[in-house]
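re: ur msg from earlier - yeah i can do the zinc ion complex, just paste it... oh wait u already did. ok heres what im feeding in:
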Amino acid sequence: MGAAIRHLTAIGPGDQVFTVNVERDFRYDPYRDFLVCAHCGWSPSLLTTRRIDAMAWEHLASAHGADRGMADRENESVSRARWVVLPLCAVLIIALLVFAGS
Ligand SMILES: [Zn+2]
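and the outut:
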């Protein structure tokens, strides 16, 4: 379905790491984000005003006993893509400025 853009993790019994993925579905406009538990297939409706990270950690704690070491990581490929796009935009803006000035 969507691409995982964030991983919400917490540490449970036996130092096992549990993960809830935030998946973004770009087929919608505007895009939609989904929460999907990597361990039990839990995927709540997001038609709510609650924060999705709070919902994810509540699920990890209540369903998997993972209530320590909460962490919110961006997917590596997403953060890497930003580091590629940012310099490209800077180069483009500089090129436009030079072009406009000449
Ligand atoms: Zn779960």
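cool cool. The chain has a mean pLDDT of 89. ping me if u need the other ligands too
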